[in-house]
Amino acid sequence: PLGTNVMRMTAFDADDSSTDNALLRYNILKQTPTKPSPNMFYIDPEKGDIVTVVPPVLLDRETMETPKYELVIEAKDMGGLDVGLTGTATATILIDDKNDHPPEFTKKEFQATVKEGVTGVIVNLTVGDKDDPATGAWRAVYTIINGNPGQSFEIHTNPQTNEGMLSVVKPLDYEISAFHTLLIKVENEDPLIPDIAYGPSSTATVQITVEDVNEGPVFHPNPMTVTKQENIPVGSIVLTVNATDPDTLQHQTIR
Fold first, then answer.
1. Where are the membrane-spanning stretches (predicted)?
2. Structural domains in the chain (count)
């Protein structure tokens, strides 16, 4: 906010403190950089307190060329008169980040294709966040909020790219369901500031297509145990085996 106290500069003068020889006044000689305003700060001439003198919109870290300002501060004795002696020091002010930008998906819908019976990462979900990448205000946390009743899917954050890595952790069965739709939300590690909220762009849909794989026939039961008396005639039926093919949506012939 306008008028926020940033820091205090303190100078000392070895002269008699009861005289004007040690009566100090403070002044800002130079501000670097000079954008977005050449007068971002003011210093109380008597106390040495540096305060902000621009509206909050000009102290927005995301729109600044650099979040660091250097002020050359002058302290002058004799109450600041031209005849006074001076000393200077540099005040370095860093504009820190607040979590004032929620993460937003780059697309409303993502597509993925996976073969049945396979596990691993199937798609990376991309988000954008204007906050400082070195902070929890930028780092994303993903949650599957719908479409995962069997817990077949998990999502984790890539710490380098901030992408959401969606994985199959329980193999999918094409014959049970060839399509899955997941609803994913993304939030930051740190809470948003009170007047900012997560919007519709912080959720996205993932459409997953399961591809059929030619699976081998399965015997029932397995193993099979048969007991027969010795000396049975040639050509006797020992056992009728039973196998079925999991690919029920395709015409299969079993031999």
1. none
2. 2
113, 208 in Cβ contact below 8 A?
A: yes
Residues 150 and 171 in one domain: yes
pTM: 0.76
226 located within any domain: no
CB count in 10 Å sphere of residue 148: 16
pLDDT tens, 193-223?
998 999 999 999 999 999 988 878 888 888 9
Longest dimension (CA), the chain: 130
Tokens linked to 144: 């599957």
Summarised one tens digit per residue, pLDDT across range 93-111 is 999 999 999 999 999 999 9
Could you tell me which of 215, 223, 219, 207 has the C-alpha nearest to residue 243? 219
Q: Tell me what the mean pLDDT of segment 33-51 comes to.
A: 95
Distance CA 157, CA 141 (A): 6
SS (H, E, C) 181-247: EEEEEEEECCCCCCCCCCCHHHEEEEEEEEECCCCCCEECCCCCCCCCCCCCCCCCCCCCCCEECCC
Give the three-state DSSP class for 78. helix
Q: How far is CA 126 from CA 79, 92, 102, 110, 169, in A?
A: 59, 36, 14, 9, 21
Dist. CA 225–CA 235, nearest whole Å: 19
* pLDDT tens per residue, range 230-243: 999 999 999 999 88
Domain of 76, CATH number, reads 2.60.40.60
